TrEMBL record:
The chain crosses the membrane at residues 7-26, 32-49, 70-91, 103-126, 196-213, 233-265, 286-305, 325-348, 369-389, 401-421. The lineage of its organism: Bacteria, Bacillati, Bacillota, Clostridia, Peptostreptococcales. It is a multi-pass membrane protein. This is Sodium:proton antiporter. Pfam families: Na_H_antiporter. Its main location: membrane. The keyword Ribonucleoprotein does not apply. Keywords: Antiport, Cell membrane, Membrane, Transmembrane, Transmembrane helix, Transport. InterPro entries: Na/H_Antiport_NhaC-like_C, NhaC_Na-H+_Antiporter. GO terms for cellular component: plasma membrane. Belongs to the NhaC Na(+)/H(+) (TC 2.A.35) antiporter family.
């Protein structure tokens, strides 16, 4: 059945953006309007609307919202988010986070501080799957390096933020990776190979640039670490690379972390339950947002808004490259508006999937585009959580850090180049 298109069907999204952005601009703080609350208000607004030329009862609209929010892909994503939170919590509690940071710092050459710091951040963010966790762990160390060597503090913190976005984009347990692969129905390792081919030049160029910007000959302190405590991260990476289901991957990481933590006396069995619950609690807000956004998109689709947006984009798009640029633009704009790259992927995902089908774009490539551009812009918006956190730790303005988030800018450059020159032709492992 052909769907009617209607601009009015997009009004809930316009309402959300006006509410969220307006509150941030007026108050000067974009955290004053919680994302979940803004989406709840937008959903309430959506329930007041009606399909063009038709009258739908409130109970029917609530049913549409509930079915869309409870769509199997979204519910599976919610469960994976909770498991990812549990893994990060247990890795933190049993010392895996501090061990992997300290291991990297111990092999950091004093005359290559910035490239070394960037590599440590890349390894840490890839292992943990959380950019905020990476900034939390490395920013204080970065401040110490800047103080000890005289290297520009904004440059050091920009290096930390850039390395954090590396993991957000590539990690097997990052919520952005999970969202991108689940919305497009592709495998983790396929998206990883596609992304890595695109961003590897950005990593190399970042390291070269940072090597010229490093200075000072200060010797860093010796940091203690335990190779045994890094096992959960190694288990996550290996199991994901061999193609195990993401649920199994996370289960392996959680169980190995639990066994090692119990054996080394980091917590007892009862405390372990609390650690797992704490991590799931960290992801509850995101999980609920994913459900609400799914329901909201379902209503907008019913009202003809998604079809209108698709037709509008398609009217400007004439080629496969144009469609890919459209997907990149859409997810980037939503990230700029919401300051959350995961939510931008969840929101743009359905439209991106439609565009992929329309222009015969490999869904692996679509997942890569969604993840690359949302993560890149997340690393350069001064009111985003990563830059706000880094700036708060360094006691400087986040605007000062933006020009030095070198890797984030290069992600955009090479993302665009990959579209223009058709990089990364990765085949699905299911084929």
């Amino acid at each position: 059945m052909d769907k009617k298109s209607s601009f009015a069907g997009l009004s809930p999204l316009v309402f959300f953006l006006a509410l969220f952005m307006g509150t941030g601009i007026i108050t000067g703080n974009f955290t004053n309007m919680p994302l979940l609350l803004a989406f709840i208000f937008a959903s309430g607004f959506a329930l007041l609307l009606d399909k063009k030329g038709e009258k739908t009862s409130l109970s029917d609209k609530i049913d549409i919202f509930s079915k869309a929010g409870g769509e199997p892909t979204i519910i599976l994503m919610v469960v994976i988010f909770l498991l990812a939170g549990a893994f990060y919590s247990i890795a933190d509690a049993m010392g895996a986070v501090s061990s992997i940071v300290n291991l990297g710092l111990n092999v950091l050459p004093a005359n290559m501080l910035l490239p070394g710091l960037f590599l440590v951040g890349c390894i840490l963010s890839f292992s943990m799957g959380t950019s905020m966790g990476t900034v939390t762990a490395l920013a204080p160390i970065g401040v110490g390096i800047a103080t000890q060597t005289g290297i520009s503090l904004p440059l050091v913190l920009g290096t930390v933020v850039g390395s954090a976005m590396f993991g957000d984009n590539l990690s097997f347990i990052s919520d952005t990776t999970i969202a991108a692969t689940r919305t497009q129905g592709v495998e983790l390792r396929d998206k990883f190979k596609s992304n890595l081919f695109i961003v590897l030049p950005a990593v190399i160029i970042t390291l070269i640039i940072l090597s010229f910007m490093s200075g000072g000959n200060a010797q860093l302190d010796t940091y203690e670490y335990s190779l045994v405590r890094i096992v959960p991260y190694a288990a996550i990476i290996v199991s994901a690379l061999i193609g195990l289901n993401v649920m199994v991957v996370l289960a392996i990481g959680i169980s190995s972390g639990a066994v090692i933590g119990l054996a080394m006396g980091d917590f007892n069995m009862v405390e372990l339950f609390g650690v797992l619950q704490r991590g799931m609690g960290w992801m509850e807000d995101l999980a609920i947002i994913a459900i609400v956004v799914g329901g909201l998109v379902g209503l907008m689709d019913y009202y003809g808004g998604i079809n209108y947006l698709l037709e509008t984009v398609l009217s400007k798009v004439k080629t496969k490259k144009g469609a890919q640029l459209g997907i990149a633009s859409l997810v980037s704009l939503i990230d700029i508006a919401t300051t959350n790259n995961t939510i931008s992927i969840i929101t743009a995902g359905p439209l991106a999937k439609d565009l992929s089908k329309e222009y015969d774009i490999n869904p692996i490539r679509t997942a890569s585009i969604l993840d690359i551009f949302s993560s890149a812009f997340q690393g350069i918006i001064p009111y985003g959580g990563q830059l706000l956190l880094a700036a708060g730790i360094g006691k400087i303005s986040p605007v000062e850090i933006v020009p030095f988030s070198i890797y984030s800018f290069l992600m955009i450059v090479f993302g665009l180049l990959s579209i223009m020159f058709d990089f990364s032709k990765v085949r699905s492992t299911n084929n």
